[in-house]
Write a structure and sequence with these properties.
mainly alpha; 12 helices; disordered C terminus
């Protein structure tokens, strides 16, 4: 198992050297997103849309049909709480200790008083006080951007969706080293706790998170279908602008 983990780490690091090199040589130009792979990206995008329409979305609609809204909200809160591990780690890597402390407090409050994150007590505290424990958004792609790594070419990943050279590498690092659901702290620091690291537990949890994430996006996707003349172009532009804004905001906060 250790050899497999090390192999994953080597693969990620080697890929990171390549992706970082690509990302540092070209960023978004002034005329719009840098999308030299558009024909391939559109093909992957169309493939994803067919899978969503014919496989994911019917299953997600069934999920929403049988899940009461309060329970669906608690499931979303639970996975958002797990994501605080990724946020805290990347906040520390960015030397943004204020964000790291706030997210740590958020994780502690929601895990204890919020029953393992099922109830978002931290956001309620923020709403009625001057204490800012609102949800942060930090990942390793943003961390790379914080240290000057350009986004590189826009990429559409199979089943995952919009990304970039930098963010693809960032997603791999978060998934293998930080995300408690896919690998993360439970695989690194609690590797002797077999029931936590068992695929029999991880796969159902990861599947539930995928369903929950898609359920949250389902109505937005329907609206987008009706409003956008070119859905691929709209998503590409929105993604690149949002990622640029997230990196810029994180830099301004420090």
């Amino acid at each position: 198992m250790t050899n497999i983990f090390r192999s994953k780490a080597v693969a990620i690091l080697v890929s990171g050297l390549f992706l970082s090199g690509c990302a540092s040589t070209k960023t978004n130009d002034q005329s719009g997103p840098y999308d030299p792979l558009e024909p391939m990206n559109r093909a992957v995008f169309n493939f994803n849309e067919r899978v969503y329409d014919n496989v994911f979305d019917p299953a997600v609609r069934q999920y929403k049909r049988i899940m009461p809204d309060p329970l669906e909200l608690m499931v979303g809160n639970f996975f958002s709480n797990l994501n605080e591990v990724v946020v805290i780690t990347n906040s520390v890597l960015q030397l943004n200790y204020e964000s790291a402390l706030a997210s740590s407090a958020r994780l502690l409050v929601n895990t204890t008083f919020g029953v393992f994150g099922l109830i978002d007590i931290a956001s309620d505290i923020s709403a009625v006080s001057d204490v800012n424990l609102n949800k942060r958004n930090e990942d390793f792609g943003q961390t790379l951007g914080r240290y000057g790594v350009g986004s590189g070419p826009y990429i559409v990943l199979p089943l995952i969706g919009p990304s970039s050279a930098r963010d693809t590498f960032g997603l791999a690092v978060d998934s293998f080293f930080m995300d408690p659901v896919t690998q993360g702290v439970t695989g690194v620091f609690l590797n002797n706790v077999s029931y936590i690291n068992s695929p029999a537990l991880r796969f159902p949890v990861a599947t539930a998170r995928t369903f929950n994430n898609r359920a949250e996006f389902l109505e937005q996707d329907k609206t987008l279908e009706e409003a956008a003349l070119d859905k691929y172009e709209f998503i590409r532009d929105a993604y690149t602008q949002r990622r640029a804004s997230l990196v810029k905001n994180s830099e301004e906060d420090k």
